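Task: sequence design from structure.
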């Protein structure tokens, strides 16, 4: 009789986990044990946001109960490292075979690759089903020197999974992309309905107490109200479809000092640990279009985020690793400024974004891209340090999603492999898409001078310093052309003010 150990990773809490199905083929339930490991070393790797840890650990403990309710024997181990957890478990409960699912991240996969040798037993590592690109890779013949743009990748995924596609293989609504309808600022009198919250139950409260007692990470466990079960995550998704999906598209890029989540779904923390899965979400979004629950620009925009961006980012991660960790195409060396750790700054947009992040572990994508990364790129902050900061603060942050989004897309440090141009902007963009500038000490219109917005002189300083490189990028032509409005004296003022500002920045030192 074969005895099987199923090791389920903490960020793979799938409702129907493939390793369980595989184990059922090999052994009866009484010869099968499921193992979940809480590793203290993994948890202490970074000063993670306390709510991120509560989410992950509470969801793991709820998941263990969910499996027990289904009749599985589950061992929930607390161990220093995953290896000690595995070894201790197998010593107590010897098995003939270990089954697990491929980790989403590089170091996890490296550990799995050596597991058979390290444990001296057969180990089966199943394909990772949390991503659709595992089922269909649009570019199986990947060439390292070729550029693969999101738009073509996304169209191929839509065609393959038959999403928003008609019988002639053409996009429903007549266009592949409705982005031009999705750039509206939020009107002052528009009050988006807030997302569903979930009062902590006894398990979650216990985890909150444990994390608070450790007193280690950033943020606080107070006000934790995230979903920690499949049912709750599904309720959060249903609530989004019912109350926010309709206007998701129009205000996808809007930022607001009054409203945090606006019409976004705020579902990434659940998707990234397996509480929600992409294909059913995509199908539900598509049905909302057919049922007239949401317009095409919202439906296509949301589907592009999941079937396009999320899959593309994961796919890029696996092609660009391990070099991506150290990519630094703009040779940026500055430490992370202190204001990103404590929100203490007169720059209103950064103050708001970081304050909310400290409170909740979430900000939406434009704040990540056009406030945080925009500043860090213009200020020359070291990409690896920015990635460390993202991994620490965001509740949905894991290496596979942070490195391509931050080092690739946000900081354009991967020689344009993820994004074909650097996303840089002056205060003009921030003022257009938000109400932050209205309450700011700085003047969003001034390029230089005492009250000039730092985004302005940093932006022009960056364009001056990198003029040759930017000129060579066909998508950056207009930015460089703007330089003709700056005479030599203004160029000098821009550079002097930028250097003085950067030299005066208080830096955070990673302990
Ligand atoms: P919505 O706007 O409602 O979008 C729906 C879903 O699409 C998201 O839940 C997410 O699963 C997916 N999605 C959209 N864009 C991306 C993307 N670029 N990469 C991966 N998935 C995407 N996402 C993370 O999950 N974790 C991160 O650590 C993370 N870091 C980011 C850093 C930067 C600099 C940028 C520009 C983006 C980052 N993203 C990250 C992507 C995106 O910002 C978040 O997925 C999104 O803001 C989560 O909020 P939401 O669920 O309300 O998203
Ligand atoms: Fe941010 Fe500048 Fe606007 Fe102030 S003026 S909110 S610093 S963009």
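Answer:
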């Amino acid at each position: 009789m074969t005895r099987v150990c199923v090791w389920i990773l903490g960020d793979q809490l799938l409702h129907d986990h493939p390793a369980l199905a595989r184990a059922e083929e090999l052994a009866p339930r009484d010869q099968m044990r499921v193992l979940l490991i809480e590793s203290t070393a993994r948890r202490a790797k970074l000063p993670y946001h306390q709510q991120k840890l509560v989410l992950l650990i509470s969801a793991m403990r709820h998941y263990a109960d969910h499996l027990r309710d289904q009749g599985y024997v589950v061992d929930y181990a607390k161990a220093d490292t995953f290896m000690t957890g595995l070894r201790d478990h197998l010593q107590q409960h010897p098995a003939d075979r270990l089954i697990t699912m491929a980790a989403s991240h590089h170091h996890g996969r490296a550990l799995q690759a050596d597991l058979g040798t390290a444990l001296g037993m057969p180990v089966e590592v199943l394909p990772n089903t949390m991503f659709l690109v595992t089922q269909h890779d649009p570019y199986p013949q990947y060439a390292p020197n070729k550029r693969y743009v999101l738009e073509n990748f996304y169209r191929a995924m839509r065609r393959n999974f038959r999403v928003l596609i008609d019988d002639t293989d053409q996009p429903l609504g007549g266009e592949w992309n409705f982005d031009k309808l999705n750039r509206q600022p939020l009107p002052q009198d528009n009050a988006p309905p807030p997302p569903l919250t979930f009062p902590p139950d006894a398990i979650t409260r216990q985890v909150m107490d444990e994390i608070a007692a450790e007193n280690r990470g950033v943020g606080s466990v107070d006000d934790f109200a995230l979903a920690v079960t499949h049912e709750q995550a599904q309720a959060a998704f249903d609530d989004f479809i019912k109350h926010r999906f309709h206007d998701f598209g129009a205000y996808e890029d809007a930022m607001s000092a009054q409203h945090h989540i606006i019409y976004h779904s705020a579902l990434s923390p659940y998707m990234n640990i397996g509480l929600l899965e992409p294909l059913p979400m995509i199908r539900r979004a598509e049905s909302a279009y057919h049922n007239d629950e949401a317009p095409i620009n919202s439906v296509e925009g949301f589907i592009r985020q999941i079937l396009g961006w999320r899959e593309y980012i994961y796919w890029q991660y696996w092609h660009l690793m391990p070099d991506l960790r150290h990519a630094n195409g703009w040779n940026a060396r500055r430490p992370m400024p202190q204001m990103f750790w404590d929100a203490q700054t007169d720059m209103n947009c950064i103050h708001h974004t970081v304050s909310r992040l400290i409170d909740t572990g979430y900000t939406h994508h434009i704040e990540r891209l056009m406030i945080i990364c925009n500043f860090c790129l213009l200020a020359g902050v070291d990409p690896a340090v920015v990635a460390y900061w993202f991994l620490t603060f965001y509740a949905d942050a894991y290496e596979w999603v942070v490195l391509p989004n931050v080092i690739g897309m946000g900081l354009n440090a991967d020689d344009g492999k993820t994004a074909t141009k650097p996303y840089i902007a002056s205060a003009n963009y921030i003022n257009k898409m938000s109400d932050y500038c209205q309450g700011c000490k700085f003047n969003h219109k001034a390029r230089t001078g005492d009250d000039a917005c730092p985004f302005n002189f940093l932006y022009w300083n960056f364009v001056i310093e990198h003029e040759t490189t930017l000129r060579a990028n066909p998508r950056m032509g207009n930015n460089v052309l703007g330089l003709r409005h700056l005479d030599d004296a203004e160029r000098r003022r821009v550079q002097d003010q930028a250097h003085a500002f950067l030299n005066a920045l208080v830096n955070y030192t990673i302990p």
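The pocket of flavin-adenine dinucleotide (ligand 1) is lined by residues 264-268, 271-272, 302, 305-306, 309-310, 313, 364-365, 368-369, 373, 390, 394, 396-397, 401-402, 405-406, 409-410 (CB under 6 Å).
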